[in-house]
Inverse folding.
């Protein structure tokens, strides 16, 4: 790890000034990916801009049928939030299943969504719940936000400030976690709202994606059986030492059924 | 006497206070004046020629003291890393033993092979300098698997090792086995893989070295399980330093599992470099470095056949194994898949004829050496899997087949056809005990309940034996050991009667400071708190072979027992003088020397005082002082074993195997501290479960890259993977160790992989499944179920 400058702004204005003004700087959220990368000398920013002390970036609130989660809200805070549990139970249970307690005590929703790790849990929820990604510059719909392996619609220096989740009428998340890393080998999030169903899959491919066939079937009948026969083509799925592509394709159906079951139980 | 805590008691561990309060002293905690920091540059290629190394840009950086390479090693005329075992092939010729240079010379042979050592004022400067060293490689094709490595045309690691074959070793009676197979009513056959494992002790390896220019002395602090052996190998064979000028200290060490029982190149390089730069140097491996440089374990490919008569009696066993050695021969490397494997193939059975052939093979992978169990888990897995296959094929109940072949308690001592003679044991007693503890009678009901949930449930047995307490030196010498395998202990009684023990074993988690203190407390009648155990420093402890192979209590404890007996013997002479009685009339019990049949007595403390203040003392016939030393060389191995029963539930939809129940009934001989024994078994079983269900070191077969090179991809067993276990002992006493002890450090790891996989296969048996390779990952299980249930394709 090389030495670097450390800035800790307390206002969004100060943050923007630092991000724009300090050469070769990187924003630091929970640091769950960035810090190991720096320690392994794979990244060597000249400065880190720590976002943890900007009050507007943290916290959970609800207005009408929208749950807003500040970007710097930690996983543990979402998992334990009464508001999140009552409005969107799947979001709280998803957060409770990320990594391990150490990760949940540091990792943040904004950091996870901005990083867009292909095995991260939150991108599936953001996509399935048709959330709005709010940045310091604009609002980006989930369908336009994720662009494959670690790629998003964020411009350089653009910071996520909050996620706005429309409250679904029913929703569930099920993941098959890697016994080693506890990341999703396959994670499926299913959400139903106003007759429309969205199914988002993480872990299985190079980035989070939707499954139109499952969505259509679930819009007709919202039961696990409705999608039991829908199998993804393994061709575009990931393959590694833990799970080959065919197995991942199979797991997508299994996890999707579990997610629907969970949605039916919690709605 | 008060506060005696003796054999059979379960006091809390003495050593835990310093560990739990953060006051341990590990190598990484050591700081020396003017200390510098070292970083190893390791090969990023599985196989490559080093065309050139440009140190200039690194040496130009501030604070950089040296960049040392294989050329510097050669220029200084240093030796290569020695192998402690020299085995012979079936042709009578010695194994191929290419040099293992401490820094690569001309070629790298695995990802992680050491190419250069960079020393700078700080760790950051050393890392920056390491990045500035330019190495020009000519990348060669790699070969990582044993089957591929022996094929014609495979990449060759060494010019003078054709087909990468280090040794073609055999054991047993090939003719008798062939004859028996001709008479067999049934032959069970099995091909299996014993997966490669990485030990991953909690504390990574580390070393600090310094040299004293005034006296010519060197000190090396290292994370070692055997500091005296490191001193001997390194000073005599590698660095050519006079042995009396070399001090090796292994202070608190955070786990070993075998990974730290080898002489590593890092130890030799840092000691040599400390002299070159004239400053102390520290090196601490990070976890990623550990994955590609700690010696790996297992990695066998095996074909095995068991011949049976029509009643299921075993007639003969034939085993052919290819064992991966990695890129070089590590300290014990070639011994593990041969001498610690073949002699265990009789298991607990009366198999009259056994033949074993092991091809020891070099590949472009981390060198393979001993890992908890070392050879014996591999042997147990072959035998116990094959017994289940035979039972299934012959339609005989698995337990019944074992009963028909198990060595009866009355038949001990039992000479196997593969060198070893079991002194004692009661495998049938362990089996019966485990059947009761595991509630096997209730299994059918539990299986039916699982089926109602759409799950498959299975039960698996492993009745096994191992050989430990390494080792009888003369016997080991015949097998190829190049050193002795005895142990030494000194019991130093102070004038106060308090005791310091200096012992050659090394405690890195096993609880020796407690167990050994209990032995002394019992033997001398001294308070448990008045006994301290010292180990791990060649300047304090006389000599020792260290801790591995479940030998510390069996061999070290025996030396300690003998030394304690000598103390009592001398105490009796002193007491006889003070009590004006014949030495033969002096009794010693519970810390008191007394004249038989009288009330005249002296306490142990009084005798110690007299020995150090010899005013009234038989100086004409007896030296003052009360300190005794013993070396103990065992007459045989010890043979702990037992029966393990695993019960799993499989979710056919995901392939996940859940270990639901685990029962172990083991014969470990005399139990000194039941709490520590249970802890050793528990931890050992978890490591075996890890091999069976989770752990797997995987290499890319094209590039030679380690794909499972971090905890993100190498699955360690975790608490939530495991049920509460039932762990019991059913001991028979070892007939040749002083206290009847047999050792318990490895039994858990040896018995458990077979029990778990047998339960997995049982759960899938209705699908016609006869074998599942380790680890039984969800993907692998799902694939097996898919293949078994897929309708046959219509052609």
């Amino acid at each position: 790890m090389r030495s670097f400058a450390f800035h800790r702004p307390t206002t969004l204005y100060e943050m923007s000034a630092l991000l724009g003004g300090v050469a070769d700087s990187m924003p630091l959220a929970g640091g769950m990916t960035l810090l190991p990368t720096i320690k392994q000398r794979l990244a060597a920013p000249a400065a880190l801009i720590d976002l943890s002390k900007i009050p507007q970036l943290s916290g959970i609130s609800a207005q009408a049928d929208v749950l807003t989660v500040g970007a710097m809200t930690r996983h543990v805070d979402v998992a334990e939030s009464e508001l999140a549990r009552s409005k969107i139970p799947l979001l709280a249970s998803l957060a409770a299943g990320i990594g391990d307690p150490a990760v949940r005590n540091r990792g943040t929703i904004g950091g996870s969504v901005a990083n867009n790790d292909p095995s991260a849990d939150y991108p599936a929820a953001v996509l399935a719940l048709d959330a709005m990604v709010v940045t310091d510059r604009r609002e980006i719909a989930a369908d336009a936000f994720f662009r494959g392996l670690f790629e998003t619609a964020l411009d350089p220096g653009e910071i996520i400030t909050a996620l706005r989740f429309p409250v679904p009428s029913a929703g569930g998340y099920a993941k098959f976690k890697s016994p080693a890393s506890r990341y999703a080998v396959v994670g499926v999030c299913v959400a139903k709202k106003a007759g429309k169903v969205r199914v988002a899959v993480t872990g299985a491919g190079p980035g989070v994606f939707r499954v139109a066939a499952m969505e259509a079937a679930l819009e007709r009948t919202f039961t696990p059986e409705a999608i039991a026969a829908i199998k993804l083509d393994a061709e575009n799925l990931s393959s590694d030492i833990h799970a080959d592509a065919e197995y991942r394709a199979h797991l997508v159906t299994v996890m999707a059924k579990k997610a629907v079951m969970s949605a039916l139980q919690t709605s | 006497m008060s506060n005696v805590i003796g054999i059979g008691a379960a006091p809390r561990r003495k050593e835990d206070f310093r560990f739990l309060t953060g006051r341990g002293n590990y190598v990484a905690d050591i700081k020396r004046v003017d200390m510098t920091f070292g970083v190893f540059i390791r090969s990023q290629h599985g196989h490559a020629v080093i065309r050139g190394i440009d140190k200039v840009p690194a040496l130009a950086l501030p604070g950089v003291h040296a960049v040392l390479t294989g050329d510097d090693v050669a220029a200084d005329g240093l030796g290569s890393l020695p192998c402690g075992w020299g085995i012979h092939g079936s042709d009578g010729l010695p194994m191929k033993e290419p040099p293992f240079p401490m820094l690569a010379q001309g070629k790298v042979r695995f990802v992680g092979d050491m190419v250069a050592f960079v020393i700078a004022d700080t760790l950051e400067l050393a890392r920056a300098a390491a990045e500035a060293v330019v190495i020009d490689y000519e990348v060669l094709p790699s070969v990582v698997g044993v089957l591929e490595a022996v094929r014609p045309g495979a990449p060759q690691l060494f010019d003078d090792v054709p087909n990468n074959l280090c040794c073609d070793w055999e054991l047993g009676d090939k003719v008798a086995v062939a004859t028996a197979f001709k008479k067999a009513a049934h032959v069970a056959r099995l091909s299996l893989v014993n997966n490669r494992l990485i030990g991953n002790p909690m504390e990574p390896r580390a070393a600090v070295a310094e040299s004293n220019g005034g006296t010519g002395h060197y000190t090396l602090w290292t994370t070692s399980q055997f500091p005296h052996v490191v001193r001997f190998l390194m000073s005599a064979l590698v660095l050519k330093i006079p042995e009396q000028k070399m001090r090796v200290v292994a202070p608190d060490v955070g786990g070993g599992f075998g990974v730290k029982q080898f002489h590593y190149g890092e130890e030799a390089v840092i000691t040599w470099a400390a002299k070159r730069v004239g400053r102390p140097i520290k090196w601490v491996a990070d976890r990623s470095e550990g994955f590609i440089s700690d010696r790996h374990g297992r990695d066998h490919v095996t074909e095995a056949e068991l011949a049976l008569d029509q009643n299921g009696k075993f007639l003969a066993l034939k085993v052919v194994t290819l064992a991966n050695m990695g890129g070089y021969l590590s300290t014990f490397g070639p011994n593990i898949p041969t001498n610690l494997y073949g002699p265990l193939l009789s298991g607990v059975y009366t198999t009259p004829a056994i033949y074993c052939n092991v091809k020891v093979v070099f590949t472009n992978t981390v060198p393979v050496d001993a890992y908890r169990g070392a050879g014996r888990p591999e042997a147990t897995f072959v035998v116990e899997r094959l017994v289940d296959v035979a039972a299934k094929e012959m339609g005989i109940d698995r337990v019944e087949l074992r009963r028909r072949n198990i060595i009866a308690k009355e038949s001990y001592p039992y000479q196997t056809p593969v060198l070893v003679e079991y002194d004692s044991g009661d495998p049938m007693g362990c089996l019966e005990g485990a059947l009761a503890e595991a509630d096997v009678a209730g299994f059918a009901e539990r299986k039916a309940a699982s089926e109602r949930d759409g799950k498959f449930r299975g039960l698996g047995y492993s009745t096994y034996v191992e050989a430990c307490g390494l080792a009888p030196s003369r016997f080991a010498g015949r097998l190829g050991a190049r050193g002795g395998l005895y142990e030494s202990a000194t019991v130093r009684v102070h004038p106060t009667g308090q005791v310091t023990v200096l012992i050659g074993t090394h405690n890195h988690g096993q609880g020796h400071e407690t167990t050994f203190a209990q032995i002394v407390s019992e033997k001398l009648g001294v308070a448990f708190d008045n006994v301290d155990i010292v180990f791990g420093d060649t300047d304090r402890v006389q000599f020792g072979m260290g801790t591995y192979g479940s030998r510390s209590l069996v061999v070290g404890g025996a030396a300690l027992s003998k030394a304690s007996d000598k103390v009592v013997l001398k105490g009796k002479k002193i007491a006889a003088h003070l009590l004006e009685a014949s030495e033969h009339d002096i009794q010693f019990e519970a810390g008191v020397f007394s004249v038989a049949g009288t009330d005249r007595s002296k306490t142990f403390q009084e005798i110690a005082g007299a020995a150090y203040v010899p005013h009234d003392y038989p100086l004409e016939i007896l030296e003052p002082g009360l300190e005794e030393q013993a070396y103990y060389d065992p007459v045989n191995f010890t043979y702990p074993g037992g029966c393990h029963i695993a019960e799993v539930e499989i979710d056919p939809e995901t392939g996940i195997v859940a270990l639901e129940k685990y029962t172990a009934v083991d014969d470990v001989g005399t139990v000194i501290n039941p709490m520590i024994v249970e802890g050793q078994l528990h931890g050992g079983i978890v490591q075996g479960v890890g091999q069976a269900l989770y752990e797997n070191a995987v290499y890319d077969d094209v590039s030679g890259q380690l794909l499972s090179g971090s905890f993100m991809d190498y699955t360690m067993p975790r608490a939530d993977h495991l049920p509460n276990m039932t762990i019991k002992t059913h001991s028979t006493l070892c007939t040749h160790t002083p206290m009847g002890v047999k050792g318990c450090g490895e039994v858990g790891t040896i018995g458990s992989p077979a029990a778990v996989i047998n339960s997995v296969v049982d759960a899938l048996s209705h699908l016609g499944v006869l074998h599942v390779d380790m680890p039984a990952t969800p993907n692998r299980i799902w694939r097996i179920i898919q293949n078994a249930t897929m309708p046959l394709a219509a052609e």
Q: What stands out?
A: The mean pLDDT of chain A is 96. Chain A touches chain B at residues 1-3, 40-41, 176, 178-181, 183, 240-244, 247, 250-251, 254 (CB under 8 Å). DSSP finds twelve helices and twelve strands in chain A.
